[in-house]
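Possible regression after last week's pipeline update?

I re-ran a chain I had predicted before the update to compare outputs. Posting the input and the new output here so someone can diff against the archived version. Not blocking, just want to make sure nothing changed silently.
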Amino acid sequence: MKKRSFQTLGLAFITAVGLTACDGLAKLVKNADQITYRVTPEVMTVQGDSVTIAIKGTYPAKVFPKKATVTTTPVIVYNGGEKAFTPITLIGEQVQGKGTKITNAKGGSFSYVGSPKIAYTPDMKVATLELRATGQMKTKTKSMPAKKVADGIITTPLLVKSDDKVILATDTLQKVSSTSKTANIYFLIDESRILGKKISPAIASMYHYNSTAVALSASNEEQLNAFKSYVTEALAKGSVLKGINVSAYASPDGELSLNTNLAEERATNSIKEMIKIFKEKNTKVDSATMESFYTKVTTAEDWDGFKTAMEASSIPDKDLILRVLTMYPDGETREREIKNLSATYTEVAERILPQLRRAVLTLNLEEKGKSDDQILQMATSATDSLSVAEILYAATLTQDLNVKAEIYKKGVKMYPNDWKTLNNLGYTYVLQNQIDEAAALFHQADSLKADNPIVKNNLGVIARKKGDRKEATALFSAATGAGAEVSYNMGIIEIQNGNYPAAVTDFGDNNSFNAALAKLLNNGVDDAITTIDNSDEKEEALSFYLKAIAGARKNSADILVTNLKSAIEKDGSFNQMANEDAEFIKFRDNADFKALVQ
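New output (post-update):
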């Protein structure tokens, strides 16, 4: 009898406890609508390929049971699926364990940042965020009504254009090149006449001309004929005369005053000979005009030429003579000391001095290179006669990517060890979206020109397009100095990484869609509008769409509707895109907006 009473009492106690738990959970469920939640931002946002959330929840007083544990799970719900964040654990004041404590008497708050991040997929574009909570006391559980706390996911960062900047290798092509032709005219001792034919032995003997002087003078005819032929060919090719330099010399023997006059006369006679040549070639240039092209320099005693000739000779005692030049700066003293070496001086007078009695004629011209039409024609038909610089230039003369590719292919075949043609063929393939083919060429160029910043940049473009942003970042870091393209490419990566301040810095003063997008994402709405208005891409449908988003963020229906209308007029697909875009949630009841997207 006593035993039965004890069992009845125990059953009653257990039942009472169970009823108490049920009553506490029931009250929690009943008052669930008093719990407030604030999601920041109000609309979920894709950042760095993922969706993250920040939630602050508040329980009022007398709602949270002292012995309850509430597990709340944020869930992204979308058409065809759902993805849950890590649950939030809240505990009553009498519960031991991990979790944020909420008191019954005063209530309490909790903060939560979704972790781990949830990778965004395209089917999540139209989505909601629900909070699903379950309360537990002892072994009893009750589910609270699911509560929608956010509507939509902003995917504006995904608008980033994949317009990475590959860099062309260039090679300076001189369309006009400077060239010159030189002739040496030799004179007999104490003479300023230009002899064009070999002197007879009788005349040479009569005037005591030595054999070296006679031989050098005989070469004048050959020199002048070669000079005339050069002038004929150069002018026929359309070369432009830029000037003529005449340097006339006397050997360092004899009186200085006589040598000064002699050098001057040799220069004058040489100029007359040049004018005569041009007249013969019918250049239609009068003597006065021709003379204005001349630069005349005379040297009365050519000691520098003497020293050079001596150093190159095999004359005995040449070292002694060279030492005399070092010891005595004065010309007369030098001449006297050298003549004192009578036997040696005889050989000097025979072999050295005759080659110093001369005038050096230098014609300076500008030669026109091949015309653009010639280069382009040859690049497609006779590439083997073009230099690397001409091949690279030829490809810039056409906008047809297929023709460019063919020109570079021929360049690669002709110059297989030149990194520039490989790089530029890869550049063309990137523009044709042949990414694997471009990658192979860039790697080959890199093997020929290691650590080349241009090639590193282009390899970085390939890596990013293939989804490896980490590798791309390393390659762009190695491409420093290649150009502004490197920073632009890093800006794209920073947008994809969700690092918008860095993206703005990378784009700098660049006026482009991507630069405007970075500013918009970095809360620089007005700067974004200004940038896109100054961009070459401002008339594109996507640019108008970005300005419509800017209008929504400025809470300006006029800016939104005006630009969205332009975007849809240019590309009808923006109608459906805007209808689903969470950027426009606040305007979905706006009549003008509805008229555009329905």
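Follow-up from reviewer: compared with the archived run. The CA atoms of residues 291 and 356 lie 25 Å apart. Marking as no regression found.
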